[in-house]
Write a structure and sequence with these properties.
Order of helices and strands: HHHHHHHH
Radius of gyration: 21 Å
Helix content: 40-55%
Low-confidence stretches: 6-10, 28-34
Strand content: under 5%
Structural class: mainly alpha
């Protein structure tokens, strides 16, 4: 015999949460769902606003590499799966950067150069903190690769937070947009070292 108080009723609208058995109260609200690809423009526009015309990179290393090789070469652990997952947005970032560059001349180069400059500053800090360990610079970088990504990501977050473009956005959405952009910069060799 089945008691009525144990029946599961799945009627009505569901926006992603189903509870089969609950003995307490649940409060859940979805106000606004945001596509990840729509977050990328906010990151790029915010960064473009702060980039100077003086920040331009003149050297290019066009030797191809595989993302897994770069992940292994830099000894990435914390961000390994994140890079693999969100590098799928590489072409979305590339497309938006190119579109944005058409209306804001040289903005793509400035943004990528600034990101690389941010990485180099972070790398310098890490190397300086470890200068008496007797390790080579590349070994220090490999030992701190996840920390270096954190440092760059935090600096980008501060720029976006202070840009005034995210007033009505959730922090989780902003983090996803930054993550996609960081993965793009990793693939473009603006963050961490390219395999030899």
């Amino acid at each position: 015999m089945i008691r009525d108080d144990y029946k599961l009723d799945n009627s009505g609208n569901n926006t992603g949460l189903m509870i089969g058995n609950n003995t307490g109260s649940i409060n859940f609200s979805i106000e606004k769902a945001t596509k990840i690809s729509s977050l990328i423009p906010i990151v790029i526009q915010s960064m473009s606003d702060m980039c100077s015309d003086d920040i331009m990179e003149n050297t290019y290393n066009l030797k191809p590499f595989k993302p897994d090789e770069k992940i292994d070469y830099n000894c990435i652990f914390k961000y390994k799966d994140i890079i693999k997952k969100y590098s799928a947005y590489y072409y979305k970032c590339e497309k938006y950067l190119n579109t944005f560059d058409n209306s804001h001349i040289r903005s793509k180069a400035k943004i990528l150069s600034w990101t690389n400059l941010c990485y180099m500053r972070s790398k310098g800090i890490i190397i300086q903190e470890n200068k008496y360990t007797g390790k080579k610079d590349i070994d220090i970088i490999k030992q701190n690769s996840d920390k270096l990504i954190d440092m760059v990501q935090n600096e980008i977050y501060e720029i976006i937070k202070n840009s005034g473009k995210i007033d009505d956005m959730y922090i989780e959405d902003i983090d996803l947009g930054i993550t996609c952009f960081i993965c793009f910069c990793f693939m473009e060799c603006k963050i961490l070292e390219k395999p030899l």
